[in-house]
């Protein structure tokens, strides 16, 4: 099936982790037709590895170092991608994680700040930087990576991460509503637990298998599960779909 990605330029944040969703998404977008996939991460050495893997597929790529919570870094990142490829058709906001595990009964307001900076302010900054270029072309697709923890309370109970990701859901809808007239769509993929560096400790697969006992399909998510859903939202196949939160979590969230 043709996803309509030929000639498109994508920017994927959080694409450094070599076992993470961002790398898998970047590679899939390149395989499925994008001409160029720019990747960014706070860890530039890992982002370079991802860019090299994209180039091996015969597609263009640059790796740019950016702390996605810093406005100056994001502005420089987007300028670099525009200088190189002249446009950004697809923005995948993947960078994120749990910055603080303090539960609400013990949390100080400042304990919440780190999660809100990393998971919510980050996508505010990237969207603000990229949207003007998409508006100019009257076209664009933004995919935010949210989290099943907003609805699977056993996985998000009491921490600021789930609150920040709930903000990602609402922000997705705000952008979708306001930018529809500009030909820009914005959707969100909300993963269930998957064995990336997001999962603490050395035995990531073991921990995900343990968490998967409460998942109706009986397994955790794979990187490919999340990349496939993201590619759908990034592509013309979802051309009439905006403002949606797609839970990719094996039946854990059913409405
Ligand atoms: N893996 C899961 O179980 C799971 C479940 C639900 C949601 N998520 C979400 O999926 C997204 C991707 O995470 P992942 O699972 O691939 O984890 P990961 O830790 O493997 O990858 C996250 C990447 O983001 C980068 N990053 C972190 N802070 C950054 C910053 N300030 N600036 C730039 N880059 C930064 C990291 O260096 C890393 O490469 C995150 O938003 C996470 O919250 C993950």
Task: Describe the overall structure.
- This protein is 44% helix and 14% strand.
- It has 255 residues and is of the alpha/beta class.
- It has a seven-stranded parallel β-sheet with strand order 3-2-1-4-5-6-7, sandwiched between helices.
- Helix 1 packs parallel to helix 2 and helix 1 crosses helix 8.
- The structure holds nicotinamide-adenine-dinucleotide.
- Residues 14, 16-17, 19-22, 41-43, 66-69, 94-97, 118, 145, 147-148, 191, 193-194, 196-199 line the site of nicotinamide-adenine-dinucleotide (NAD).
**Low-pLDDT stretches:** none
Number of strands: 7
Strand order across the biggest sheet? 3-2-1-4-5-6-7
Question: Helix coverage percent of residues?
Answer: 40-55%
Number of domains: 1
Query: In the CATH scheme, what's the topology name?
Result: Rossmann fold
Number of helices: 8
- Average pLDDT number: 97
Please give the alpha-carbon distance between the first and last residues.
28 Å
Judging from the principal axes of the Cα atoms, what is the shape?
globular
Q: How would a textbook summarize the main sheet?
A: 7 strands, parallel
Highest CATH level, the class: Alpha Beta
CATH superfamily: NAD(P)-binding Rossmann-like Domain
């Amino acid at each position: 099936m043709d996803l309509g990605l030929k000639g498109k330029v994508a920017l994927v944040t959080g694409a450094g982790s070599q076992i993470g969703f961002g790398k898998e998404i970047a590679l899939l977008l390149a395989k499925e037709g994008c001409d160029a996939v720019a990747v960014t991460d706070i860890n530039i050495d890992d982002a370079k590895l991802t860019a090299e893997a994209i180039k091996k597929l015969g597609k263009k790529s640059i790796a740019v170092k950016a702390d996605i919570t810093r406005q100056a870094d994001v502005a420089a990142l987007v300028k670099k991608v525009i200088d190189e490829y002249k446009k950004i058709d697809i923005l995948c906001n993947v960078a994120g994680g749990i910055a603080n595990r303090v539960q609400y009964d013990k949390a100080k307001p400042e304990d919440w700040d780190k999660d809100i900076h990393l998971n919510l302010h980050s996508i505010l900054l990237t969207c603000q930087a990229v949207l003007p270029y998409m508006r100019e072309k009257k076209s664009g697709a933004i995919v935010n990576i949210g989290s099943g923890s907003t609805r699977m309370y056993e996985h998000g109970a009491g921490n600021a991460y789930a609150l920040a990701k709930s903000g990602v859901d609402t922000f997705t809808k705000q952008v979708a509503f306001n930018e529809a007239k500009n030909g820009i769509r914005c959707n969100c993929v909300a993963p269930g637990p998957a064995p990336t560096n997001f999962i603490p400790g050395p035995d990531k697969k073991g921990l995900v298998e343990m968490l998967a006992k409460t998942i109706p399909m009986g397994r955790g998510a794979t990187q490919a599960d999340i990349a496939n859903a993201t590619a759908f939202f990034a592509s013309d196949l979802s051309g009439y779909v905006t403002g949606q939160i797609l839970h990719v979590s094996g039946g854990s969230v059913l409405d």
